[in-house]
Every structure is written in structure tokens, then in C-alpha cells.
Amino acid sequence: MNGLGIWSKWTLLFLLLTVVPLLRAQKVISSKPDETAEEYEMRMKWWKEAKFGIFIHWGPVSIVGTEIGWSRGRQVTIEVYDNLYKRFNPQKFNPQRWAKLFKNAGAKYVVVVTKHHDGFSMFDSELTDYDSMNTPAKRDFIGELVKACRREGLRIMFYYSLCDWYHPHYLPRPDYIHDPPGHQRDFAKYLEFILGQIRELCEKYHPDGIWFDGGWEHSPQEWQAERLMKLIHEILPNAIVNNRSGLPGDYDTPEQQIGAFNLTRPWESCITLGTQWSWKPSDRIKSLRECLRLLVNCAGGDGNLLLNVGPTPEGEIEERQAKRLREIGEWLKKFGESIYGTRGGPFMPGRWGTSTHKGNVIYLHILNWSGDSLVFPSIERKIVKARLLTGGDLKIVQNEKAITIVVHPKHQQELVTVVRLDLDGPAKDIPPRQGPYLPVPKAQASNVYLKDPNFSAEKAIDEDETTRWATDFGTHSAWLEVDLGKPMKIGEVRIMEAVEFGERVKKFALKCKRDGEWETVITGTKIGANFARKFPPLIARYWRLDILEASEGPTIYEFKLLPAK
User: Fold this and answer.
1) Strand pairing partners for 531?
2) Is 224 left (phi over 0), alpha (psi -120 to 50) or beta?
3) What's the confidence (pLDDT) of residue 185?
4) How far apart are CA 226 and CA 228, in angstroms?
5) Three-state DSSP class for residue 115
6) Pairing between strand 304-309 and 52-56?
């Protein structure tokens, strides 16, 4: 053997004995500064595999149906808000029924508010009288829910707000809150209070993690965040902690939006099922289609979805929310293999949909089609089997340049079309890449509220039922025009009016432009929350929703044109 060969052998031995162990012991950004990457992965394993959790915002504020914490001193006077607990007596609170519902929804963990910014403790605390035991119910809501979730095999984590606009020693106080005569603020005393409550929560209930919030009002040093983390992990070594104490924590928490594709940093999107965190009478509940799109896009971006419910003042999950959760659970019973325990990619999320993978399998979650086929970039593995989990036949052609998947329109699902691709090797070895390109329609409108891009015409065609096109107050007629990019055969329209602002549209028409002239396709006097109408197919590139009469500025969540099948 020549000298180079001997050097290479000893170099390899050196790497195996020194560098590899160092890599295994590499430090990570987490809530435990002294742990290795391997230890971090083991601690986070259940959470990363879970993919779907339920968030619960509940408290005395449900009596008035306004937002928790934020409505104190705004929609609800401080005096009224701070005394709501004296009337909080949720006689229908059945934690076992909640836990069964969450399990049937397909959720793997629960995050429940123990104390929000309003300072009310939903548990039996020795450090304050402003807690659940001093309500007419005299119940430890958190303790009861923990036991119920454990019985159903659900993990449970605690939301805890660091800021507290009720506590006498907390500062800064909001501008609209005035101190009583002679009162002295003492932030050091407040810090001992939150340290004491975190100790109570960890020692008494042993949660799987802490979900901090409200950290924006002070620096991590002022919060003594490192001391908080150390306290939690001394009691609960395997606890998972989020990033809202001012420190990075174990994972990121994008709010009311889907996180960006990221295979290196765990994340969880917290999103409301309604339009606010706590219960709101007659709130608009997200459709099953929207909930599933949130779920698959989070999983496809390598994140989790934490979907929020707001129980009623009686202690129930209202039937509209419960029904939606059961529907999600039914879908997950059929297609959960494409969500649970997966990683995001290799095809990155786009208008076409998203993908997940585990083992030797790639799952495609197709949300939008271009005709009957989609063309994916090539991969470094051979597809040995392909099938349509949602039912029907598909055709697949793989070569060195691309993968073409063909599904007849009758087998393309309105909710999500799920395709399973079995490979000849691990999917994790395939580097991420962009998925199929689908042209994005263009839109314009005669009027946009305050010319604000957050309410532009594009918001009505973005496949996001939480964004909307809105018009100025005093607008009694307007139009929304869509350019499909090319002539397409359209046979159905669906329109979602933002009815929580009132059913403002009184007369409208759907039109398309043919031979340079606008032709009326359908007319109506009411749109409402879920308008849908089929019509004899017409081929056109330009389409218009013409609102001819409105009681006030019209506002539309979604204007969707569906190809004729």
C-alpha cells in the first residue's frame, strides 16, 4: 500500500474516533443549552411526529364573547372584565367529553390556556385568589382536563402568559389602566409570582411542555427566561418549550399563518378555527376544506398545526366546532398515514399542493390541478408503485427529466387528492425541490378598502378563506375581475361573502368576456357565506363578479371559478 493509502486509512480512523463523536455531541438551539443534538431529537420525537394538536382558549371572558385578554379595558370595561369570574359557572364542562372529541379529531396533543394576559388562572393556584377555585364552579379546570387527556392517550401542554395586565405588581401596565392610590409596582415581586406559578403547574400536573406567550413586553434578561427554563427542566427533564419567552426555545410558533418550509428548525402554526381565540357567538367557522388545507400545508412544510377551539361559557365545545373536528378526524382515519410521523417534502409547497415523506414513500397532497395532469421534477429514486389513496385510477410516467401524474377530473377531489408513491429507497435522501408550476390568476377590482393591499382583489382568489377583498365604506356597487391567463371551460362558480359584517350584497351578476363583450352568465339577489351555482360550460379567459347593489361596502373571502367536468 502506498503512503497516500496509509494516510487515508489513519485519517479515516481519526475521523471515526474523534470527529464523528463530536458531531453526535453537537449542541443545538433549544430550551436545554447543555443537551446534544441526539438528546434534543429524542426529546422532540413525539411532538414532531404528532403533526396535529388542539389549542384551547377558555375563561370567564366567554361570558361576554369577546377576545380573551385583549378586550379587557377596550370592548369590556376593566371593572366588568375583572369580575366576570364571579359569574363563571360552566355546569356543562365535561373534560372527558372534550378529550374524546380531540382524540376523535385525530389530534395527538392539546395546549390549554392556564393564564392569559388578563391574569386569570384556570387552575387551583396557591399564589392568587383570582383563579378557578374562586368561581361559583369551584373546580380545577386544568387538573380535570389533564386527567381526561391522559386517559385518552393525549399529550398535554400548558399555555402561560408572562405578561399580566391584572396583577398589581406587573409593569408596564397598559396606558388605559390606572394604579390605585398609593399602589407601588414591583416587577421583582411579579417575577417571583410567575416563577411560583410555573413551579405549581409543573409539580402539580406534570405537563408535557410549556407554551409561553406575552414575552414581547420585556427582554429575556428581564424575564429571567434562563431561570424559567432551568426551573422547568429541573422538574420535567423532557418538557418541550416554545420560543415566546424571548429565548429560541425548542420550536417556532407562527401565528394565524402557515410557516415557511423548513427542515432544520421545528415549527408549529397556531391558527383559530373561528375568527378569534376565545368563544364568539355566531362566529364564522372555517370549512373542512380550509382546515384540511391548513393541515396538509403545515405537514408539507415540515411543521405542525395547532388548531384553536373556544369553548362556550357553559363549558361545551359548540356543535359547529365539534362537527368540524369530527370531520377532520374522519379524514385522518383514512389518510393519516400521509400526515403522522412524516417529514416535509421533497416537493416544496406551492399552489399545486404539498408533499410529505416517510420511509420509502412520498405522499402528494394535490390541492389544485392544471387539467388532468401535473408534471413534477425528476427524483433520484425509482417509483416502484403508485396509487390514488382517495380512490380512482391514475397514470404515472417517470423518466430522467420528469414525473408526470395523470388523474381524470372525476377522481380529482374537492378537498385533497392524495397520491402515494412507493420508491426503491429512502425518500429522506432526496433533496427538497420545487413542485409543479401552476399559473396564478390575476385579479383587479373597481374599489379596494383604503387602497390597502391587505384587502386587494387578489385576496379573493388566493385559496385562503381567511383573507378577503374589501371595499370602502359607502360603496354600493363594485366589480371584481379575474384573468385566468388563457381561455378555460368554466362550469361552476363559488363565492364566499364575509357575512360576519352583514349580508351586504343585494344584487349581483357573474359575467364573462367573449368576442370583446361582457355576457351575463347568472344573476342573483343574495350571495351569503357559501354561494355555489353550476351553469352550462362557457370558454372564456376573463370573468367578472359584478355587484350591482349593496347595502354597504361589499367584502368577499373567495371568488372561485371551477373548470367544467
Assistant:
1) 495
2) left
3) 79
4) 5
5) strand
6) parallel
Residue 552 burial class via C-beta count within 10 angstroms: exposed 0-12, middle 13-18, buried 19 and up = middle
| Dist CA 220 CA 249 (whole Å) | 11
If phi > 0 it is left, if psi is from -120 to 50 it is alpha, else beta; for residue 182 that is: left
What are all long-range contacts of 523-532, with beta carbons under 8 Å and residues at least 24 apart?
Answer: 527/495, 527/497, 527/503, 527/556, 528/497, 528/499, 528/503, 529/284, 529/496, 529/497, 529/499, 530/287, 530/494, 530/496, 531/493, 531/494, 531/495, 531/496, 531/497, 532/492, 532/493, 532/494, 532/495
Judge contact between 292 and 331, C-beta under 8 A: yes
Are 528 and 500 a contacting pair, CB within 8 Å? Answer: no
Q: In 3-state terms, what secondary structure has residue 462? A: coil
Q: Residue 441 and residue 464: Cα distance in Å, rounded?
A: 14
Angle (nearest 5°) at CA 178 between 177 and 183: 130
Write the pLDDT tens digit of every residue in 136-194.
999 999 999 999 999 999 999 999 999 999 998 998 877 766 666 666 779 999 999 99
Strand partners, 405: 374, 396
* Owner of C-alpha cell 377596550: 74
Q: How many residues does the chain have?
A: 565
Instruction: Tell me the pairing of strands 478-497 and 373-377.
Output: unpaired
Please write the tens of the pLDDT for every residue from 153-168.
999 999 999 999 999 8
Distance of alpha carbon 364 from alpha carbon 390, whole angstroms: 11
pTM (predicted TM-score): 0.90
Looking at the DSSP bridge assignments, the partners of residue 513 are: 518
List 305's β-bridge partners, or say none. 52, 269
Q: For the stretch 81-105, what's the b/e string if a residue is b when 16 or more beta carbons lie within 10 angstroms of its beta carbon? A: bbebbeebbbeebbbeebbebbbbb
Query: Residue 25: is its pLDDT beyond 60?
Result: no
